[in-house]
Amino acid sequence: MSRRCQLTGKKANNAMSVSHSHRRTHKLQEVNLQWKRVWWPQGKRWVRLRLSTTAIKTLQRKGLQAFAKEAGIDLNKV
Q1: pLDDT tens, 26-75?
Q2: Which of 76, 66, 70, 68 is nearest to 51 (CA)?
Q3: By the 8 A CB rule, do 71 and 9 touch?
Q4: Is the pLDDT of residue 1 over 90?
Q5: Neighbouring residues of 24: CB distance < 8 A, sequence distance ≥ 6
């Protein structure tokens, strides 16, 4: 499984690390991903998702059903 948020699709960002002498080297900025068990009331069960921390905050506001529909995810298969 790739390091990607299952609801928002966030993934790593290619960036530059700049030293004091302004030497630039490549670095990878990874997404802050967490395994999260979320209660799905319509399915009456827990769903385990790999989410970014921003997705967890948005999930509390929108709700799981609406967020998954927006992302195009079938929660019965997760």
Answers
A1: 999 999 999 999 999 999 999 999 999 999 999 999 999 999 999 999 99
A2: 68
A3: yes
A4: no
A5: 16, 17, 18
Token code pair at residue 17: 């690390």
pTM of the complete model? 0.83
Supply 48's token pair. Answer: 């385990």
Three-state secondary structure call for residue 28 = strand
- 11 or 2, which is more confident? 11
